[in-house]
Amino acid sequence: MVELRHSGSSLGSRASSSPMKRDEDASPLIFNDHVLRDDDDDHPRHSFRDRYRSFWSQIYSFFPFLNDDPRFSQHGSRISLLLLVFIAVAGLISFFWILQRLNSPYLCKKDGIVLHCPRVKENPSLWENPFSATTSWKPCAERRDGGMSDLPPENETSGYIFIHAEGGLNQQRIAICNAVAVAKIMNATLILPVLKQDQIWKDQTKFEDIFDVDHFIDYLKDDVLIVRDIPGWFTDKSELFTSIRRTVKNIPKYAPAQFYIDNVLPRVKEKKIMALKPFVDRLGYDNVPPEINRLRCRVNYHALKFLPEIEEMANLLVSRMRNRTGSPNPYMALHLRFEKGMVGLSFCDFVGTREEKAKMAEYRQKEWPRRYKNGSHLWQLALQKRKEGRCPLEPGEVAVILRAMGYPKETQIYVASGQVYGGQNRMAPLRNMFPNLVTKEELASKEELAGFWKHVTSLAALDFLVCLKSDVFVMTHGGNFAKLIIGARRYMGHRQKSIKPDKGLMSKSFGDPYMGWATFVEDVVVTHQTRTGLPEETFPNYDLWENPLTPCMCKA
Length: 556
Description:
Shape: globular
Strand content: 5-15%
Radius of gyration: 38 Å
Structural class: alpha/beta
Helix content: 40-55%
Largest sheet: 6 strands, parallel
Oligomer: single chain
Number of domains: 2
């Protein structure tokens, strides 16, 4: 043991004279363990006190004001003091910046009061879009109260225009919005549109049977002059409906504003009163001035209000949907488009027996003989349409998609649909996976709905409002109903989800026999993260009714 200690001491002595040791002596900020060993307490190269003094001498060289030694100049002390103040200020700024980033405060509003809300990381929700994604845009097509109207008197406008709003409730709604816009373009007076009966709906509903006429006229009084009826000086009212001399029929689909100025306005000025028909989709989107598109949104989202009795009944249905479990619960609204007419018109192929397929072929040949021809080309057409996502989703397909998204079996679902093609057998897969399916007929008694049956359009209005106010809206195929619902929910705040399934991708997944459930779930979830009804950037010929972002919404 003695020899070993003596040997370690010798090594320490030889190391003390090495070049490395001499370098260490010149750098007092470098510490070396072996000079502080217990064995060398009697003869260390540098004592701990020396090293301590050497260290602080370095500090004093940078900050002379810390040292009261008169050898340090007063000028150097002032410079060092300024340097220390700068470092302290920078440190405080850094501290508060880090604190701010941790809290990430931002302003938000609740009930009109500006609050200081902490931003938190939001977990994905089945029922709502992330709050942080719903604060960038706000609606801005409403009427500005207190504004001055520059409209001329009724007898000084270009003349009167009259339209038939054809189709179902939602196609009629779009036609009304377009009629107001066209009247504005031509500085004409609009006669209250007539809701025309068609061969599918067979409904004699009038404008005043569905919409609040007084609110409609008053809300738009600073934009367009609207009168309830054809002026009294025009005695032969039947001529307006039948005479070709009083009708403009050559309006192309999605016509630009300039077309009306060049081709329709001269005839209105000449005849003083003209009917425009047909009027389905007779005004474009990106080929009209932005203020005209904003006016269309004003009509759609603010001027067109359903009658109070329709609103009250819809609110009752919504309340019952939210309390079906005995306590407040969210609900989903499903627009299921799988009626016989829609299935036939799609010319898609669906699962069914040979007898069902034969009957559908006969139905298509009868209703659409020009498209059906001899039927030989339909199989290839059906495959192509399914690949492109242009076929309605079957009830069973909808059920699988919703389950993959994570919606549980207990989900309360309001179904807005006509009579489903295939009846209960076709609905069985959806009802088995989601047994809490209800319609308005199941939520309300016959007595409660009796007053609405005389106007089929008013029943459609109930479906529209219940879907509009749902926590989640799911469409299964295109159409005016779905795009108006999605557009309105986007415009009004886009907090609630509006799911638009990617039918093209889903058709590939359904047709892949090797895809497992886990892979399918991942595909569904990832694909539909961006298909939940948030405002989207527009593109040429975009649909204003489904995505009112550019003309009708502003940066929040």
